[in-house]
Design a protein that fits this description.
single chain, 405 residues, elongated, binds zinc ion
Length: 405
């Protein structure tokens, strides 16, 4: 399977300039090609081929005065930029055919975009030096912080600059699945708005405080930015602070997702989650909390870690009414408004925690054997066994059906 590994890069001054040039040239070629294709489409002409665009917008353009500077960067970077545009068009045409959610035509790239990136393939002859630097053509040997080992030699590296001005090298590498000791546990996961996640064993997981702290810092930075006069130097400085705070929130969230997904995959032989149509939810007023929670990124992590460690991963379709069915007796009890956190099953009388009940149902829908006890705050009134009803122990009456909670 293929996994993406990212490492922080620390380019020096001249290398930062060279990278800025590479980002700029890749962007210009991308925009030139996009313009050529959109003009042809508007005129009803044939869709310009990638090979022709490469010849016209890279090879021949380098010979002209106004595009001569394209020669200052690795031509692989420019070729890869055309490939990115091809991928963007492929997605767009697939969306027209209904193969994926509807989307617009590819967008022009801007110098002000939050993320700038260039890609070097094996053709570019980039390499990792014996000293551990990342050697990039026409840029130089860039210092890397190797936070972990690469499992195999990657053929391609993408260099990224984010909104906070940080640089990263991102490699796609082939990895072998790792085998973990078998576990006899399985778990259903309900991703909720009240808690980040609720597990079928009754565990409720909130976002950790380091994530909330980063969120508060971001809010303060945004408020400070809104107070600065437009066009002022202070506003520019405040904008960088907001970008940094954003990056910190994103990092903290990724870290939390990694820790939780690793734990769930390590402890369980199989996990099941509900397939949230996050896109549908994201258009509602719940949008903000959905984006904050970053569920889809978390579910993606669970899925690839399950594949990596040979664990089962199940995604349950939305048609399963997980919050309406009693996990104890299986009777569908009708829709429940969001504010109802605890409900009593009309059929068996069990009193259920909404979220845990949903998590148990997710696990059951995936065919996982989980205990349903966690969902139950109070079981229904089951006919008492002979000799149990009404007996006294230590002078305390035994109340049938209510365990020591
Ligand atoms: Zn029931």
């Amino acid at each position: 399977m293929q996994l993406r590994y990212s490492f922080r890069l620390y380019p020096n001054g001249p290398q930062r300039s060279a990278l800025a040039r590479a980002f700029g040239c890749a962007r210009v070629v991308y925009n030139d090609a996009l313009r050529a294709r959109e003009t042809a489409r508007a005129a009803g002409g044939a869709f310009p081929k990638t090979g022709d665009l490469s010849k016209l917008l890279i090879t021949e353009a380098k010979l002209t005065e106004e595009r001569a500077w394209l020669g200052e960067v690795s031509s692989v970077v420019l070729q890869q930029s055309l490939r990115d545009l091809d991928a963007a068009y492929r997605n767009f045409f697939d969306s027209l055919k209904g193969k994926r959610p509807r989307m617009g035509t590819p967008r022009f790239k801007s110098r002000k975009d939050n993320r700038q990136a260039v890609r070097f393939t094996a053709n570019a002859r980039w390499k990792i030096t014996t000293g551990g630097d990342l050697s990039l053509p026409k840029i130089g040997d860039v210092r890397v912080k190797w936070s972990r080992n690469l499992p195999s030699v990657p053929s391609t590296v993408t260099v990224i600059k984010d909104a906070a001005g940080r640089y990263f090298a991102s490699f796609v590498v082939e990895t072998e699945p790792v085998t973990l000791a078998e576990s006899d546990q399985a778990v259903g996961i309900d991703l909720g708005l009240g808690h980040f996640a609720v597990l079928s064993d009754g565990t409720k997981i909130d976002a950790p405080c380091f994530l909330r702290r980063a969120g508060k810092k971001l809010k303060r930075a945004q408020q400070a930015l809104s107070r600065k006069a437009k066009g002022s130097n202070n506003r520019d400085k405040a904008r960088v602070k907001v970008a940094r705070a954003h990056a910190q929130v994103a990092d903290a969230r990724r870290e939390f997702h990694h820790q939780l997904s690793t734990r769930l995959i390590r402890d369980n032989q199989a996990v099941a989650v509900e397939d949230l149509a996050v896109k549908g939810l994201a258009r509602t007023r719940l949008a903000k909390s959905v984006h904050d929670a970053g569920w889809s990124a978390f579910v993606t992590m669970l899925e690839y870690k399950a594949a990596k460690f040979g664990r089962g991963f199940h995604r349950i379709g939305r048609f399963e009414p997980t919050s309406q069915v009693c996990s104890q007796c299986g009777v569908k009890d009708g829709p429940k408004p969001l504010h109802i956190r605890v409900w009593e099953c009309g059929a068996c009388g069990a009193v259920l925690d909404r979220d845990i009940n949903a998590a148990v149902n997710v696990a059951k829908a995936a065919g996982l054997a989980v205990s349903a006890c966690g969902a139950r705050i109070r079981p229904g009134l089951i006919p008492a066994q002979r000799g149990e009803a009404g007996t006294h122990r230590d002078g305390q009456p035994t109340v049938v059906g209510i365990p020591g909670l």
